[in-house]
Amino acid sequence: MSLTRHYSRVLRELxxxxxxxxLFLLGMGLVLAFAASPAVSSSADPFFYVRRxxxxxxxxxxxxxxxxxxxxxxxxxxxxxxxxxxLILLVLVLAVGQPINGSTRWLHMPGFSLQPSEIFKPAFIVxxxxxxxEEDRGAPAPGRLLAIMIYATAAILLTLQPDIGQTALIxxxxxxxxxxxxxxxxxxxxxxVAIGAGAAAAINLVPYIQRRVTEFLSxxxxxxSQTDIALDAIGSGGLWGVGxxxxxxxxxxxxxxxxxxxxxxxxxxxxxxMLLIIALYALLFVRAWTLAMRLNDPFARLATAGLAxxxxxxxxxxxxxxxxxxxxxxxxLPFLSYGGSSMLALAFSAGLMLALTRHRPxxxxxxxxxxxxxxx
Length: 376
Hints:
Order of helices and strands: HHHHEEHHHHHHHHHH
Helix content: over 70%
Oligomer: single chain
Number of helices: 14
Number of domains: 1
Radius of gyration: 21 Å
Largest sheet: 2 strands, antiparallel
Distance between the termini: 42 Å
Structural class: mainly alpha
């Protein structure tokens, strides 16, 4: 089969509603890049970050479409390579990475910085789904034990950075996948206790986390925090916003193009734009989760559900921070925040999700079978 015919078939099989939602988010990300870039650019070019974000988006679209063309076997193999590579990079970043704001999360290269944890997340979800499904199929390898070992290794490496936000995100998605895959109540309760104990230990033993939580609970102890400024930006926007490029609070908001892009959207485009953003993430999750529950292949079903949870929880955490409902985590808003590592990794995640949910012959339960199952 020629490459042209192969991609023509892939395009026909892609879930169009899911693809449209993803492209709409990318489009909104470009609009918000124009809104936030002049406020944070330190160069003579006020659109420095826009140009870089366009470059990242273009590369991301290529990665998304290439990943979407993978077979289920290709999804597993590429995710396995990405998992192995990201684990090596997580070790390397502790050895040679440069600390920024008290954390060592980045590998700096000429013209680009790489955050290995971004690559790890989708790869880990897919490989975890494969290990779980293989064990359920009767494979001799202890899939759940291997997944727990991978998770524990990554959690330790991330905690050493420290990056508790990403650790918590991976933990929540992993716990949800274990529960969806049929975890017994005994294991569910045990896992919940372990997560609670780990969170308590992090708050009490890690100064970085203790400071963030204390500042959040005390409202900054009288200091004007990033979240206070973000709330001012959101409040000044009102229902309709002050207009594109007319925002003023964004000029004093740290990380306006990154962690607090949601607040910039609120200031310039108003509460309706923020509701639209939330609705898009909700639609993305609902559509992906609905497709996952209809898939016949257990691996594809669990991997799609895990990736849907990843997008939803990451968006939820970022929005909660912007609204002063959670401590600052440094987590980006998927497809809307500026960042090369984040954009490329999210494009890879979205491509894998599109590949897993393609409407291949026999991939989905027939409508009559679904109706019978629902009635039963």
